[in-house]
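The authors assume throughout that readers already know how a fold can be written as discrete tokens. What matters is that the chain and its backbone geometry are given together, residue for residue. A single example would do more here than another paragraph of explanation. For illustration, here is how one protein appears when written out as sequence plus structure tokens.
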Amino acid sequence: MAEWRKSSHSGENYSCVEVALGPVVGVRDTKARRAGQLTVSARAWQSLLAHPFSRSDSANAGTA
């Protein structure tokens, strides 16, 4: 897996996630690095980035 990076918008308080980009993409919590990581395919990651959602979308998830 590639080098871990965090958003430049996260500031110094470590309240963000880190991403390691590659054929497999890793996502982990900066504050709890030892807790593990979520791993997804690069294709799934690109799909997420192509279709971001807002907090209001996530609050309504599962309702139709």
In short: The radius of gyration is 13 Å. The mean pLDDT is 81. Residues 13 and 34 are 18 Å apart (CA to CA).
